[in-house]
Amino acid sequence: MKTNVAKITTFALALFVLLFAPSAFAEESSSQLSSKKRDQISENCGSIRQSLKLLQRSDARTRTYYGAIYETALSKYITPLNLRLVKNDLSSVALINLQTALATSRSNFSADYIDYSKSLEELIAIDCRLEPETFYNKLVSTREKREVLQDDVKTISTLLTNSVKSVEIIKENLDD
Amino acid sequence: MIKLPSFHKTPAPDSSQNLTPGAKHLLILGASAVGITFLTTAVSLKLYHDSGDIYLDRSRPGFLPEEDESEKDKDDADFVFSDTGKITREALEEYLKNLRLELDRLNEFSDPYGATPLSDESLGI
C-alpha cells in the first residue's frame, strides 16, 4: 500500500515538474532579461526617446510618400484603365479584382498606420526612466504594429507588380 | 479734543440692478457664444484625435513637409491615363512606361517600416 502511494506521489511530482518547469524557467529567464534591460532603458532613456521622435517624423514622411504613390496608381492608372477596357468590351476580371484588392489594401495601410502611430506616440509619452517595464511592453506591441504596416507595404507592392503583369498580358493579346 | 472727520462708505452700486434688460441679454448672448465655441472646439479636437486624422495630418508642428518634399511634388509627372478611347498597344505601352516610373519611386526607401529602427540594438537597449 505504502509503495503504491509512493509511486503515485512520485508520478504526480514528475508530471508537475514536466508541466510547469519549462514555464517557470521561461519566467525566470524573462525576469532576468527584463532586469538587465530595465537598467539600460533607464540609463539611455533620453537618447531612446530622441531616436523615437526622429523615427516618428521619418515615418510620417514615408507614409505621405507611399500614400501619394498608391493614390496615383489607383486613381490615375488602374481605375481609368479598367473603365476604358470595359468601354472597349475588353474588361479583365483579374484587373478588376486587383483594383478592388488595391483599394482595400490602401485603406488597411491607412488604418494600420494610424494604429501604429497611436502606439508610437503613447510609447514616446511613457517616462522610460521611471517606468522601464511599461515602456518595454509598449515597445514590443509597437513593433508588432510596425510589422503589420510592413506587411501592408509588401502586399500593395505585390498587387502593383501583378497589375503591370496583367496589362502586359492584355497588350500581348491585342490584335494589331 | 480733535474731532476726526468721519468717512461714510457709500455702498457700491449693484451693477446687475443697473443693467437694462437689453444689456443683460447681450451679456447672456456673449457668454453663451463663448461657451458654445469652447464646447464645439473641444468636440472637434476630440474627433480629430480619435478618428486618427491627427496622425495623417502633416500640417501640425514638427511634421511639416520639408522643402525638398514640396519640390518633388511639383516635379511629379502629371500623367493621367484617359478612361476613353480605343485600347491599342501604343496606349498600353505609354500606360506601362508611366506606371513603371511611379513604381520605381517605391524603391527609393529601402525596407520601409522595417524592424531595425525599433530593435533593441538600434535603441541601445
Q: Can you tag this structure with a few keywords?
A:
heterodimer; A: 176 residues; B: 125 residues; mainly alpha; elongated
Structural write-up:
The complex is a heterodimer of chains A (176) and B (125). By secondary structure, chain A is mostly helical. Chain A is built from four helices and no strands. Chain B has 125 residues and is mainly α. Helices cover 54% and strands 0% of the residues of chain B. The longest helix of chain B has 30 residues, at 21-50. Chain B is elongated, with a radius of gyration of 34 Å. The N and C termini of chain B lie far apart (88 Å). The mean pLDDT of chain B is 84. The interface between A and B is large, with 62 and 47 residues.
Q: Biggest sheet of chain A, in brief?
A: none
- Measured as a percent range, the helix fraction of chain A is over 70%
Work out the strand percent of chain A. Answer: under 5%
What is the oligomeric state here?
A: heterodimer
Mean pLDDT of chain B: 84
Overall mean pLDDT of chain A? 85
The largest inter-chain interface, given as chain pair and residues per side, is: A-B, 62 and 47 residues
Number of strands of chain B: 0
Tally of alpha and pi helices of chain A: 4
Largest sheet of chain B: none
Structural class of chain B: mainly alpha
The topology string of helices and strands of chain A comes to HHHH
Order of helices and strands of chain B: HHHHHH
Count of beta strands of chain A: 0
